[in-house]
Amino acid sequence: MNEFNQKEAKKHFSGLGLRYFVFTLVVNIVQIVAMNIASAIDPEIMNSTSNVFWVSMLPIMLLVYPIWVLTFEKGKLEKSNLTKHKMSFGQFIAAFVMSYAAMYVLNLLGIGITSGIAAVKGSDVLNIGVELAANLESIPKIVVVTFLAPVFEELLFRKLIVDRTAQYGEGLAVILSASMFALFHGNLNQGIYVFGLGLFWAFIYVKTGHIGYTILIHSLINFMGSVVSVKVAGLVDIEEYVSAFTSNDANVIMEYLSSNGIRVYAFVAYSMIVMSMVIIGIILFILFRKRFTFNTAEKQIPKGKRFGTTILNVGMMLYCIFWLVVTVAQLFINM
């Protein structure tokens, strides 16, 4: 094991943070320019949520992200060589179910926290994830949210970060990857469950060395959360559904089922599948909790010096402060 050099390590993490800060600025600038150009060409185009999404995201997904990944891989920041291990099909399914359970539970936690903040400030807190899922058409959700975003987000926030930090501690690399991933979303509700998912997916990548596993899990989670769940939720009117089944009137219930039978059965069946996955996922986390361990790294940072080394440097502080300001500001934007 190489002797830990704090000055060298801080320089390394500062360089990593600075690159991601510049990446943040580039992403935001490109999105602003793209939307201004689109508005100048046709002001009406920005009246559609889907159009705004296409205009702001396509230049990022098709231009900025690919170029950034390629140039970053060729950069001079030292990389770790992770040991490769294959996951069995059963392990992959277990990881997917655990991911879904983590997303579901932590999303509820995020909604609870933001609802509390909304109650204190007297107005709703904008939930970007819910807004996009509810208002976007299926095609952009499938193309961008289900396919493009998982590929580039896993490369950017799992592979590139973990590869360049695991030599200082596998656990540190996992936490840093999840933290930078959560901050990049720029809002508290998404940030909470994204942080939890980021921890688990970074752990999978550290232990397998194969980014393809987390890309596929990420894609499946996004597909179920933003496409399937929204479609199923739209099968029934929740108010009518609750009203019918709380009426204690068999005639009202039978009349409702006769008009909405297939849709109600599909809604109930999917809800049961979701709850089963959540329960099984929680049980798996409990059963496998002792497996969440990390090997000693080549340049392991000693306890007591980890935060100061990884975060208290110019590059990382610029990245963290920028996204913390964005996240806090988002809480006070009135819907």
Structural description of this entry:
With 335 residues, this protein is an all-alpha fold. The chain is globular and about 75 Å long. It starts with 5 loop residues before the first helix and ends with a helix. The longest helix is centred in the C-terminal third of the chain and has 38 residues, at 250-287. It contains twelve helices and no strands. The protein has one domain (6-331).
Portion of residues within helices: over 70%
Count all strands and give the number: 0
How many strands, what sense, and barrel or not for the largest sheet? none
What does the overall shape look like?
Answer: globular
Summing up helix and strand content along with how strands pair, one would put the structural category as mainly alpha
End-to-end separation in angstroms reads 53 Å
Radius of gyration: 22 Å
How many helical stretches? 12
The structural domain count equals 1
Tell me the quaternary state.
single chain
Into which percentage range does the β-strand content fall? under 5%
The overall pLDDT average reads 88
Order of helices and strands: HHHHHHHHHHHH
